[in-house]
Design a protein that fits this description.
Helix content is about 40%, strand content about 20%. The chain is an alpha/beta fold. An eight-stranded parallel sheet has the order 6-5-4-16-15-14-13-12. Strands 1-2-3 form a three-stranded antiparallel sheet.
Amino acid sequence: MEYKNNNTFSFEKVKTLPNGLGRAGIIHTPHGDIKTPAFMCVGTGGKVRYLSMEDLKSINAQAMLSNGYHLRKPSFEIAKAGGLAQWSGWNGPTLTDSGGFQVMSLGSGIGKVVNMDREKEVVNAAKKDRLTVVEEDGVYFTDPFTNEDEKIGPEESMQIQCRIGADIHMAFDELTSLADTYEYNVEALKRTERWAQRSLDEHKKHHMDLGYYQALYGVLQGGRWEDLRRSTAKKLAQMDFDGYGLGGAFLKEDLGEILRWCCEELPDNKPRHLLGLSRPDDIFTGVRMGADTFDCVAPTREARHGRIYHRYGYYSINKQVHLDELLDPECDCPTCRAGWTRGQLRALKKSENNEEKELYFRLASMHNLRFILRLMENIRQAILEDRLDEYQAQFYKDYYGK
C-alpha cells in the first residue's frame, strides 16, 4: 500500500480560537492525515471489539489507538507484518500508549473509590496488596492474567512500541493517584521527566526500524497542582518530542484549568492528545483548552451495557420505551441508516443466542462511536466557521437540557 505522507510526521494549524489555545488542524502521519480536533477509536488489541475495519471506515473513523501493554506479546509478529496498520488491516493512522497506565493500575489497587461514612473517598491499596513496584529503572509487576513477574521501563516500552509500529507513541511515565500526596507527586514527576529523556534516547534508536517515521509524544503528569503542571510542561517543551500526551489523575471540575496550565507552556506547533476522556462536555473543554486528539473506551463499553448516545442525551436500551423508533432519528450511523429500531436492538441484547448478542454489540458500538466522531467533525467545522460558541450552546441545550 502506498501512503500519503510516507516517512513524515508534522502538525499543521488551520484555525486558532481567540484564546490562543484551541485550534483546528491536521496531523500528517506516514499512514495518512488526521483532521483535528479528532477522536481516536480504541482498539486495545489492534481491533475495536466486535467491529471490523470496514465498520470503522463506515463511521468515518480517522485513527485507532491500541494498547502497548496488551500488544507487547505479539509485538514481534506485528513487526514482521510491517507494523500495526498492516497487521491489523486498518491501514490508517495509529497510536499506542506506553503501557504505563496498565502496569500501574492492573492489579495494583491505586486510586480505588471506597465508601467512608457514606461519603466517597479515594484511597490507595496497601503496599502489601499491590502487584506493582516502582523503581528507578522501571515498573516491576505481576501480570494479573498470567501471574508472571515482569518489568517494563522506558527502554522496554520504546522497544515494544517501535516493534508494534504505530505512527504515534507515548513516552513511559508514572501514573499517580488522586490519593497521592503533593510530595509523592513531586517525586514521581521527577522520575517521569528522567524517564522521558530515556524514552527519547531509546526511541531514536528504533523509530525507523520498520521503514517509516514513528513519532513520540512526551506525557505530562503533575496531578492537580499548577506549579507541577507548568514546570513539567516547560521541561518537556524543551525536549525533542513530536507532540504531547496530557494525562494524570484529576477531578473533572479541574480539567479546564489543568489543560490551560499545560497548553500555555507547550509549543503551539506540536499536537496534544488528551488521554482517556470522551464525555461531550469534557471534549468541548479539552478542545477549547488546546487538546487536538482524544480517546476513550466509554463509547463502546457503554454501548455493550445498553447506554445509547442521542442528541437529546443518552438513554438505556434496556427500558421498554419508544421501541419502534430508531436509536436516534437524526443519526447518520450505519445502524440507523439501515433502519434498526430500539426494540430490535433491545431484543438482540437480551437474546440467549451469542451471535445475536454480538450483533447488538456491533450495531450499538457503531452508533455510539459515530455520535462522538460526528461531534468532533461538527466542532472542527464550527471552529473553521467562527461559530463554536453558538454550536456549543445549542449542543448543551439539546444534550444536557441547559
